[in-house]
Amino acid sequence: MADAQTNAAPTTRRGTFVSLEGIDGCGKSTQVALLADRLEAAGHEVVRLREPGGTAISEKIRKILLDPANGAMADECELLLYEASRAQLVREVIAPALARGAVVVCDRYLDSTYAYQAGGRGLDAALVTRCNELGSCGVVPDRTLVLDLCCEDALARATAGGADRLEQEGMRFQERVRAAYLRLAKAEPERVRVVDAVGTVEDVAARVDAALRGVVATPLGRGDAGAAHE
Ligand SMILES: Nc1ncnc2c1ncn2[C@@H]1O[C@H](COP(=O)(O)OP(=O)(O)OP(=O)(O)O)[C@@H](O)[C@H]1O
Ligand SMILES: [Mg+2]
């Protein structure tokens, strides 16, 4: 059990928090790995994370969430498991990393819960937002990039390596998730930027860096203004 001090709202924040979002198979994990490499090459301390997961407890919760045998899981149960995994990650890893000045790069974060549980599953959006406030312990990214790709192309990329439980939900579900991400970008234009995920890995990486300009310095982000697709 955490003590009273670690349960206090995180206040010290010297680092930078970036999250990558988007529907299944759009290229998040590919771009998170490349971005983290570039940031390290630029001299930053980088903490690479993937949600759900990133702590011993959160990884156990991840296994429950992604297990194809758990198809009977109630939407509310799913929502709360994501939030439980996230809260542990924030308290144990993200808040301390931001306090010491690291750059945290997270493959999915609270916007995934909004897009999938509210947009995809149809849970009440205001309720999901409140749950996100609890699960994130109030720690919101400085910038969130939504890698945007049409559902057909993303599903083709995603299913090449075998489908997990969420991927089996199919195209209509992904369409709702994509629409929810685009709504988020409209609602929070300063934090949430849409990045065109069409094209080669290198094309998308250049757009990622362009969309991070002003938030964190990356080797590509200091040059090539023509790569911006914000
Ligand atoms: N720009 C690209 N062009 C073609 N293929 C790509 C591109 N980016 C990633 N891929 C490939 O598409 C597949 C899915 O990419 P990746 O795992 O990065 O997506 P993801 O968004 O993390 O997926 P998931 O939501 O399932 O975790 C991988 O096989 C990856 O190598
Ligand atoms: Mg991934």
UniProtKB/TrEMBL annotation:
Residues 20-206 form the Thymidylate kinase-like domain. ATP binds at residues 22-29. It catalyses: dTMP + ATP = dTDP + ADP. The keyword Hydrolase does not apply. Keywords: ATP-binding, Kinase, Nucleotide biosynthesis, Nucleotide-binding, Transferase. It comes from the Bacteria. PROSITE patterns: THYMIDYLATE_KINASE. Signal peptide: none annotated. One of its GO terms (cellular component) is cytosol. Phosphorylation of dTMP to form dTDP in both de novo and salvage pathways of dTTP synthesis. This is Thymidylate kinase. It comes from Parafannyhessea umbonata.
